[in-house]
Amino acid sequence: MAPRSWRLPTLRHHSELGDHVTKWGANAVELEVMRYRPRHELTQALRNYDIVQVVSGSPALAWVAKDAGVPIVLWMASMVEWERRQRLIEQSGPLRLWQHAMTMLTSRVECHALRAADAILVLNSTLLQHVSAGGNRRVATAFPGVDTVVFHPAEAGWRRDGHMLSVCRLNDPRKGLERIIRAYAHIVDADNSSPSLVLAGWGELPDALVRLVGRLKLESKVTVCPNVDPGRLPELYRDASVYLQASHEEGLGVSVLEAMACGIPVVSTESAGTKETVIDGVTGRLVQQRAGLDVARLVADKVIDVLHGDGGAMGARARERCLSKFSSDVAIRRFTKTYNDVLTQSVPESV
């Protein structure tokens, strides 16, 4: 809507974060693939580095660096078709057609970007198998590190009467908050003295979900914490009895790891990410998402099992798993090894 911006002389922007951070923009971004097109000025800047680390939800962004002439390490969480599956189901009319077309075009860019990367790090085994099946041998798993000093269990231990908690982007339909609210209604129906539910995160809870809470007569038992201060999160986790996630799709789920680090058992829908983080029956419970299943009721049943079962032991095992596999110290070793492998032209082993 601002044609003069289409041919800007530079796409480099001043950053309020200081001189050590540079922001680069793009133009004609209404056509999604333009967001990933190499830009001459940015390419010239990237040539000054020994290695380029791309951190992206899906791999298309790595295409930006393809002409830099330096090794590219891509760290990715999902594929664009996986990310948008639920959104495309919920959309209709011209907008759905447009989003479908942009998704298909971006998928083609993803294929080129994967070939351009010198090493690919992924968040889960499902994605590892998918990328490897495309003929790429330069792929390995790498997890985001959790600060297990900041995120630690409460001194008093697990609280069976603590609130139930979910942390996510509150306005993202992929997170399945409607299913959590309906699951909580089933829990309250079974036992009205059940702990309260806290929905915390970023953005605002959509009006439709606010109305759902009202229709289910849960206003006095559900607390919404929009745009929560990150510094408040560790205490929210520590005061919880169960961490809930009902996402339709997750590459990994950092909030699940933060809850585990705080010694909280997790009840979650099964996704590529939670199959990586949660051991069903050991550190929490997983709920399948097959067609025809009442996911909300199944989540409720699993929560009740945890609250009236060995939730404390599950939480302790979750903490141990986070320390051994998902801590910051463990994570940084995977990245530094990958950088060394790339710079010495070694090929990382698929793990």
Descriptive overview:
This protein has 351 residues and is of the alpha/beta class. Helix content is 39%, strand content 15%. It is built from twelve helices and twelve strands. The strands form three sheets. The protein has a six-stranded parallel β-sheet with strand order 9-8-7-10-11-12, with helices on both faces. Strands 3-4-5-6 form a four-stranded parallel β-sheet, sandwiched between helices. A two-stranded antiparallel ribbon has the order 1-2. Helix 4 (125-133) links the parallel strand 5 (119-122) and strand 6. Helix 2 (80-90) runs antiparallel to helix 3 (93-116) and helix 11 packs parallel to helix 12 (328-343). It is globular and about 60 Å long.
Give the SSE layout.
Elements lengths: L11 E2 L9 E2 L15 H7 L5 E5 L15 E5 L3 H11 L2 H24 L2 E4 L2 H9 L5 E3 L21 E7 L7 H14 L6 E6 L4 H9 L6 E4 L7 H6 L1 E6 L8 H8 L4 E4 L4 H4 L6 E4 L7 H13 L3 H16 L1 H16 L8
Parallel strand pairs: 3-4, 4-5, 5-6, 7-8, 7-10, 8-9, 10-11, 11-12
Antiparallel strand pairs: 1-2
